[in-house]
Amino acid sequence: MFVINCPYCGEREQSEFKAGGEAHIVRPKQPTELSDDEWAEYLFMRKNIKGIQFERWVHAHGCRKWFNLVRDTSNDVIKAVYKMGEKPPTK
Amino acid sequence: MTKNLRVKTSKYIDETYKISFKFNGTTYYGYKGDTLASALLANNIHLVGRSFKYHRPRGIMTAGSEEPNAIVQLHKNSSRTEPNVRATEIEIYEGLEASSQNCWPSVNFDIGGINNFLSPILPAGFYYKTFMWPASFWEKYEYFIRKSAGLGKSPTEPDPDIYEHKYVHCDVLVIGAGISGIIAAKTSAKSGFKTLLVDEKPYLGGSTIYQNSEHFKINNQISSSWLDKEINEIKKIKNLEVKTRTSVSAFHGYNFLLARENLTDHLPLNQRNNKIRHRLLKIRSKKVINATGSLERPLIFDNNDRPGILLSSAIEKYANLYGVACGEKNVLFTNNDSAYETVISLNQKGINVEAIIDNREEIDSKLIKEAENNNIKIYKGYTVVNTSGYKRVNQVSIMQLSKDGQKVIGTKKSIDCDCLGISGGWTPAVHLFTQSGGKLKFRDEDQVFIPNIYPSDQISIGSCNGEFTLDEILTTTPKTLKEFLNLKKTDYEDLEIQSSFNKSKRNIWLLPSDKIIGKTKPFVDYQNDATAKDIKLALREGFRSIEHVKRYTTTGMGTDQGKLGNMHALGIISETAGTKMGESGTTTFRPPYTPLTFGTIVGRNVGEYFDTFRKTPIHEWHVENKAEFENVGQWKRAWYYPKDGENMHDAVQRESKAARDSAGILDASTLGKIDIQGTDASEFLNRVYTNAWSKLAVGKCRYGLMLNEDGMVYDDGVTTRLGENHYIMTTTTGGAATVLGKLEDYLQTEWPELDVYLTSVTDHYATVSVCGPNSKKIVSQVIPDLDFSDGSFPHMSFKNTKIGKIKCRVMRISFTGEHSYEINIQANYGKSVWEKCMEVGKEFNITPYGTETMHLLRAEKGFIIVGQDTDATMTPIDLQMDWIVSKKKYDFIGKRSLYRSDTIKEDRKQLVGLLTEDPKEVLEEGAQIVADIKSPIEMLGHVTSSYYSPNLKKSIALGVVRGGKNMMGQKLIIPMENKKINVIVADPVFLDKENKRLNA
Lengths: 91, 1000
Description:
The complex is a heterodimer. By secondary structure, chain A is mainly beta. Chain A is 10% helix and 37% strand. Chain A has a single domain (3-83), classed as Folate-binding superfamily (Folate-binding fold, 2-Layer Sandwich). Chain B folds into six domains: 1-155, Ubiquitin-like (UB roll) (Roll), CATH 3.10.20.440; 162-294 and 428-499, FAD/NAD(P)-binding domain (3-Layer(bba) Sandwich); 318-418, FAD/NAD(P)-binding domain, CATH 3.50.50.60; 515-587, BFD-like [2Fe-2S]-binding domain (Arc Repressor Mutant, subunit A, Orthogonal Bundle), CATH 1.10.10.1100; 667-854, Probable tRNA modification gtpase trme, domain 1 (Gyrase A, domain 2); 857-999, Gyrase A, domain 2 (2-Layer Sandwich), CATH 3.30.1360. Chain B is an alpha+beta fold. The A-B interface holds A 1-3, 13, 18, 20, 26-27, 30-32, 34, 36, 39-40, 43, 56, 58, 60, 64-66, 75-76, 84-85 and B 252-254, 256, 284, 437, 455, 709-710, 741, 744-745, 748-750, 752, 890-891, 895-897, 900-901.
């Protein structure tokens, strides 16, 4: 069970959080102008990486804030945690 | 049998404290400090149980938690009974009652023993091969298989004991209190780390603490005396907590561990009341030091499972720690120096050793010399080929090994004995390390797996790290600790160590025999009766993966998880398949390390705390008025209120009729309520609901439908505009939390520019819903000051008002199609408002109704229930709710998906009304809908809601039907088990399509 460093509350048990899938998928501003394929790309297509993955998490049983984290899915090491709207770390 | 084999006193056994216990009904005596196993051995009892498959007599093999054979049932037929308890772990107490398992009528005469003679026809995979045909017979086979399978009996009464869970945080956790664990804990605590030291045994010091030989010395003291002093010192260190009888069950990622602290299992039953039996520790440690030790390996030869055959180290422990001789004519069989330590201990205690069989030819060490000096016959280069003695070993047959160790040569010799100690070297206990995600490497020279890559901040020291000799442990451990804890110095730098152990070992996984393997029974997994023969058979039949061989032969799948024999299984597989040992890896070690009771796992979450429920502020009234309850999410909701022995159908018919004829009252407090505020609240609602919200006037209510981004209906409810920038949204009862979560997600991640604040207020208000033609008369008496005229207070509007001095909100909204009001008031006044409504409603026959009637009333009106009439595949268009989807709005959640190629298909399943040809026939919810009964039958859809309507006096139903929108008036068929029901597709609104009743 992970210990996650919530950017607002600090280190907490994983059981206080919920995962929200891949990060940095921006909802299109003008969905009506997209083709079916383009919309499907946003709606359904997600990566499933063995290695470094950017993920959305929410401190569901805490401050209820969403944030992003970088996790190595091969060993579950959390490399970084950052707030929504902040740029992902580059290394 | 009643011989006393207690030898010289041991300081761990209190001979002034005599304890009586029962084994298989007979009373025996032992002393404080004994385990059940040591006490039985002192009474010369080896035969403890019968094996799983062949029902072979089995005895005590080990002196620890790895025991495969000596597992017993405690306190049979009592609520405290427990199966599969290891006799080697349970400490005896006054009144202990243990009995053998897996035998009938008794352990001495077991009918199932016939399986032993049938064993040629019970090979690996016997069940898979035999009980497959004919398939229809499985149920008959299963009855007998179930009866004969399984070891102990599970309790049939509630567990009277108390269990609890506790969170523990520390800097350093040390697992195992052997010599390396003690050194680690002391070093860590003295360096200022908050340290926790746990060990599964009741005492500290591991196997060093009863080591009495001059051959192993530290600073010129016998190793046990040196360690004794260390242990006395650690008791004085403040930031060190020591927990004995505490077994680590699981080692998860991020140094999260579960350990079971055993608090009362060693106490007499009458001293256990009101005490916590087990405590499950949920440990989060910054650093973990594994000092879990190692397990001695058995040797694999024909009939290596008889009672009286023990691990050599166990014999030593029984002699030194418990002062018990396992036999009077002992023989040892070894491939390394460990057995000589045992021999020396036995000699010290005056216990007779007949002979040592050592499969090594050229050997030389101080230990061996001492054995020779004591005139003990050593057969060098020999192996045991067979044993005899049905219920107790009485003879071993030995032969010389060929140079390559592949076969036996010469003539067979026999040696009489009543106890055979075996030692195949040591296996590091890496179970917890691998559970945590650690990767092992294989060390060729002594054929062991040792820790290699650590997934978290942890380290392994001592014999679990493959350091088996005293000098290795004492030179490596301080260095490792210094680096791991970042220390400059430890107290253990300049120890003077004397260790006579010679590390040579002749590893032969399966010892050769003079017989062909098919005629032998060399057991690898004792508990599951898997032999080397079975493993070879599995390989012949094409199994290659170790995980497949494990499952096919059941090797390592017992309650002991094959702690003794797994390595041999791997060795035999790689030898037979011709692969290099270590390349195929090991099987997966899974938690728990030793079995846990269910009580430990659930802790305090039993009885009413097992699955806690939410109740409304009016709940007690429903209970007093004999409501039946239904679970909706975590809520208990009143389902119906049976009167005078009514069944559910009769109660629902009465309630439904009363609500339409005069007045009904419903507790709607469970509906989710979300308070929405902010300057962008209207814009926010525009984006999350399918319909438009900007033009909703303050004081008005509107029904909204919420979609997922994929266009499928997610939730619905009425939202009221309380002020310019203030709304209250209601959600379905079950959806409240997820809707709030979804809205927060969009607000925070997609639309952070919106000024909107969401607050869950579900529990803050009680909601009393009064409906029916007389609802206005009732509510206006409850709130006499409020203007209830249709002009001032029309349908879909709300008013702030007061009942007495208490503020409340009244909404005129309806889920039944009747004229109705919902009073929302601070939760703690809910019950009194409800009672007031009941009181003034008496003259109108106000009838409380539950969720079942609510469902019926809304079905008459064709209102959907999200989750009953919808699943995650229904769009609003599929529901024939096109009217609620705004064409003008540029965007809302799910809008784009409503015209994907798939969602615009005409033949999607669509919601329709269904009327049965026979108006009395009520359909079954979930029943399939078809057009034709010709095979293959095409399933068009299914019934989602179905009731007998007392108001319409006919059966009504809703269902989803492929292309149903265009099937109005068409005949369809509901095929049931023994009949076909004809239905007509109809408008889903069955009653008052013009909504006249809303204003009646």
